[in-house]
Amino acid sequence: QVQLVESGGGLVQAGGSLRLSCAAKGSIFNIYVMGWYRQAPGKQRELVASITSGGSTNYADSVKGRFTISRDHAKNTVYLQMNTLKPEDTGAYYCNAEQLLGTVVSRYWGQGTQVTVSS
Known about the structure:
Elements: E1 2-7, E2 10-13, E3 18-26, E4 31-39, E5 46-52, E6 57-59, E7 67-72, E8 77-82, E9 91-101, E10 104-109, E11 113-118
Parallel strand pairs: 2-11
Antiparallel strand pairs: 1-3, 3-8, 4-5, 4-9, 5-6, 7-8, 9-10, 9-11
């Protein structure tokens, strides 16, 4: 089992910055990708950014150039640096990890952290 512990959400004005952290604990071997998803009220959860164990990154078009995802292997932690925040970035942000054991892929989620951007 993998536990994901998130931190760093909060309230910020438009144009401001926040950094989210997600620490993976437990049986963390063979985690090949970690990422951040967000869910706004009344909307589906969507991918914001992801990073593989090899360092390849993927971003939603809406955050390219503003958000940066990074990974510290020694701390088993993934970060999401969010700059130039917009009100439409508001939502609950969830950390995700995918683990491959043999041929079975297991997905894990954090508890979520709220990000609110005021205009």
